[in-house]
Amino acid sequence: MGAFGPLAILAGVTLIGSAIIVGLSRLATVGPPADGCLPHLGGLPPAEHALSRFHVRWYTVTMVFLAFDMEMIFMYPWTLVVPVMGTSSVVEMFLFLAILLSGVVYAWREGALRWT
Amino acid sequence: MDLTRALLRYAAHAPHVLLVPVPGAAGLRMEVEHAVASRRWREATGPADTDVLIVVGRPGHEMRAVIAEVWRRVPAPRLRIDLDPHARPADVSRRLDQVPDLLADPQRGHREAESAATRHEETTAAGDGNVEDGDHNARSGHSEHQAEDPGAGHTEHAGHHGHEQPHGPAEHGEHGDTGHTELAEQAGHTEHTGHDHHAHHHVAMPLPGGLAMADVAEDRDGLALDVLNLPLGPVLPDWPAGLVLDVVLQGDVISSAEARVLDAPRATREDTAGGGVVRDLDVVARVLSVAGWPGPAARARSLRERVRAGAPREEVAGELTALARRVRRSRTLRLMLVGLGRTQRTDVADLLRRHLSRIEAYAGGQPTEASDEPAGLAVRDLGSRLAGAELAAARLLVAALDPRVPDTAEAGRTEGVGR
Amino acid sequence: MTSATPFLLPVLLVAGVWFVAVLDGALADRAAGYGSGARRALSRTGREAARLLVAQRRTTLAADGLLRWAGVLALIVAAVLAAGVVPLGWEAPADLSVGVVWFNAMEVVAWAAVWLVGWGPNSALSLTGGYRFVAQGLSYELPHMFAIITAALGAGSLRMSDIVDAQADVWFAVWMPAAFAAYLLSATAMAFWGPFDAPVGRDVAGGAAGELSGVDRLLFEGGRRLLLVAAAAVAVPLFLGGGHGPWLPAWAWVLVKTLAVLALLVWVRHRLPVLRMDRWSEVSWIVLLPLTMLQALAVALVVLARGGGGQ
């Protein structure tokens, strides 16, 4: 689509701008990059690499979010058809949302939204 | 060169400052904080963000090694200032006034850049082995590991790996499967049941920097997940001086923690903080800063300075009450602190309120009892209080509990394992 | 149509970033109790930028440099592209028929970008910051989507210029206040700004950005403010009537309204402490989400009453 042309130009302009800033900094900087610094935890060295599996305690929120997100995909085109299809579309969509919301309330009562 | 010089000169008037307080120099720390804030210089969040490193007080040799490590990570242009514990405000001012000129010097900048970039060739000042430059090859060893797990892993390793170091790359070397049981034993947590995930990581060469990959252990919900052993060290923003928290972290929850103070025997010397409202304002400022509210935190610090400088009570009373009222009335802060630390037998909100009450009492002219003062927690008890806390909650707990070194000469480590 | 707007937009966005930085510095000094003047705040912003340009870069041990760079650049490009659908005056650089969806898609790229920046340096505290941002995203994204869908619903179209046209009489912010408020909150959260800056907080030594130095930090902080400016800029056609208004030309109104929203967002940063997700999640899911759903229902009913026939 022709409409994406200007967006491609925008992306290109942005990347070129960033490259200019990086180039400027390479000219101006006082020295070559310092490599191999230990990560900062307060001064003492860590015992392991941090690239590990991080325990996200909010994984239940992720699942609820996913359910809702799939529904939002339907809501975007729905906004276009409401004036055309009338009441039935609104009723169906909000019934669907109510079902999902009850899932959220259930998750809340189960304590999934509170992870500390 | 001209561009560098111009930019350096322009930038030198807004440096970011990292303060490293040494235990026992609290008064000087407050003075330096005030001097930095009054020049509108921002405080850095870490060494990557730092231009000026200010060591406040005379560090012992453990602390010196840590500071050398941190200094190694500061990028150029950089400047290090060591302040004598007996420095007077005029000295502090004079040293800080020299900062822009020193930072603006391009030759100095180039030299610092080169010394920062070629840091791997330097040898470490080993201290008492707690601080090692992890860039070095594994040969130089991980003595902090050895210190924490004295006997367990060594005897097994001696047989298998001969000249290889017991930790780090060894498990991921040629001796694949035997690596599993060693990991389990040296971590001292749980047995590996079933398949070990580290089987994927077996390569013939050692891991970079000699650091290991994360081990696996059960967390508070019973899931077997990666474990990181981190020393949350003394050089963190808004952190008690000299405190090191060796935490066992899974995700961002602390499974267990041990607290200690570096250079413990020296740290028992009396802190020249000044008691009473100065300390209350200091604790309140620290809690607010950790809670992410820099405006009132800075306001509390400036009021603390005015009181410390001897401003009469009538002059600051109005602002003190205004600050206390604003912090009390903040519903957002209340939401953030609700139930914080409940499983750790601590109520952060209550501690904050008590400090605020004391501040209001001072402003109102009522006498404040010394017994009324929320006593700082002894460092040796801090570790057990933090077990099971999330990292942000733990930071708030540490800020609110204001741990102090006990008066006895030994301020040793204790284990705080929890669930 | 090849107009100059694709080249004008980045310039305007950078000007917006400058505005944010200056205002933020001035408010920070004032909140601390040291009165400040505009000139000092202006020069401070320049000094901070110069400082980052001239500082030495650094990489950490066994860092994933490629991913970190990808994160920083993705943040900047996503922010600029997200603003690509904003009508500057009456004409946007790219007036997509699905402009609202495009905006949403681009700001979601920021999720991955910030996490990548947190992951790259192989530092435990950086990684914590990156994950904090993902947790934050889960909490604000749904109210955000409901808010922008409500605006699209009010106009019956996903095209930004149609939404602007539908506000010729009355702004959407007037009869969809809950959606507007939810949008402003989510704009702050998406740019991890202000009360939502736990991902780069001081309590984790700078968080996701903690190990960045030199031009990397400059690009990251610039990208973060770019995202804030883009979100504020999109609020104008969605809720504040775009270029509609008396006396001034359309582009001037867009400018004024964007700056007003930006000033509000910068001010909010200094009013509130940081909102941690382990406390805010409940509020967001139990209060904000049903509120935006009710708002959407109300707007749907209005749309039906206004003239949706159908069966």
Automatic annotation (TrEMBL), chain A:
Q: How does it sit in the membrane?
A: Multi-pass membrane protein
Q: Where in the cell is it found?
A: Cell membrane; Membrane
**GO CC field:** NADH dehydrogenase complex; plasma membrane
- What's its EC? 7.1.1.-
Record GO terms (molecular function) = NADH dehydrogenase (ubiquinone) activity; quinone binding
Reaction catalysis annotation: a quinone + NADH + 5 H(+)(in) = a quinol + NAD(+) + 4 H(+)(out)
Q: What is its main location?
A: membrane
Q: Which residues cross the membrane?
A: 6-24, 58-78, 90-108
What sort of enzyme, by top EC class, is this?
translocase
Q: Which terms are listed as keywords in the entry?
A: Membrane, NAD, Quinone, Transmembrane, Transmembrane helix, Transport
Family classification = Belongs to the complex I subunit 3 family.
Q: What is the annotated role of this protein in its UniProt record?
A: NDH-1 shuttles electrons from NADH, via FMN and iron-sulfur (Fe-S) centers, to quinones in the respiratory chain.
Question: What name does UniProt use for this protein?
Answer: NADH-quinone oxidoreductase subunit
What is the species of this protein?
Streptomyces oceani
TrEMBL record, chain B:
Q: Which top-rank group of organisms is this from? A: Bacteria
Give positions of region: Disordered. Answer: 91-180
Bias class Basic and acidic residues marks the residues at 107-123, 133-148, 154-180
- Protein name as annotated: Uncharacterized protein
Protein species of origin = Streptomyces oceani
The lineage is:
Bacteria, Bacillati, Actinomycetota, Actinomycetes, Kitasatosporales
TrEMBL record, chain C:
Q: Which Pfam families match?
A: NADHdh
Give the UniProt entry's GO cellular component terms: plasma membrane
InterPro entries on file = NADH_UbQ_OxRdtase_su1/FPO (IPR001694)
A single GO BP: aerobic respiration
Key words, A-Z: Membrane, NAD, Transmembrane, Transmembrane helix
Report the protein name in the record. NADH dehydrogenase
Domain of life where this protein originates: Bacteria
Query: Which regions span the lipid bilayer?
Result: 6-27, 66-90, 96-117, 138-158, 170-193, 226-244, 250-268, 280-305
Q: Which residues form the signal peptide?
A: none
- Which family does the record assign? Belongs to the complex I subunit 1 family.
**Cellular location of this protein?**
Cell membrane; Membrane
**Where is it mostly found?**
membrane
Show the GO MF annotations. Answer: NADH dehydrogenase activity
The membrane topology noted for this protein in its Swiss-Prot or TrEMBL record is:
Multi-pass membrane protein
